[in-house]
């Protein structure tokens, strides 16, 4: 069972549609490369087959994740506890720096957002999950332990 937000699930469903739509394109590339003749030294053919394998593996991975997913938006959660999908304002204890963090099922890699994305599998996400407002969490980083105070759950 994998917990994810409704946004995460929609993202995966859209990604799955894109990957499925690529199937005919990859099949056409394979057919065109096969028509060129000798397959032993046909780099286009081997590249297209490799793309097909990676595409199919990603389709299976996403289908499995969606099959085993539980959308956390549908769960009853206390307002003062951090759960998946929550955006949290935190203060680093040593520096007094404040930042926003969003606990997501899968990071998008978009660094233009107004917050940092963290997943429950990361050290920050693991410490943040189920933390309460006012609590100080400890995060094991490559530079040592850092402490953060959970100031508020923004959304």
Descriptive notes:
There is one protein chain. This protein has a 5-stranded mixed beta sheet. Helix 1 (6-35) runs antiparallel to helix 2. It has 2 domains: 2-71, Transcription elongation factor, GreA/GreB, N-terminal domain (Helix Hairpins); 76-153, Transcription elongation factor, GreA/GreB, C-terminal domain (Chitinase A, domain 3), CATH 3.10.50.30. The chain contains 3 helices and 7 strands; from the N terminus they run E-H-H-E-E-E-E-H-E-E. With 155 residues, it is α/β, with parallel strands linked by helices. It starts with a strand and ends with a strand.
What is the CATH class name of the largest domain?
Alpha Beta
CA distance, first residue to last residue: 24 Å
Helix content: 25-40%
The major pleated sheet works out as: 5 strands, mixed
In spatial order, strands of the major sheet run: 5-4-3-7-6
User: Would you tell me which CATH topology of the largest domain applies?
Assistant: Chitinase A, domain 3
**Beta-strand percentage range:** 15-25%
Overall pLDDT level: 90
Number of strands: 7
| Uncertain stretches of 5 or more adjacent residues | none
Structural class: alpha/beta
Identify the CATH homologous superfamily of the largest domain: Transcription elongation factor, GreA/GreB, C-terminal domain
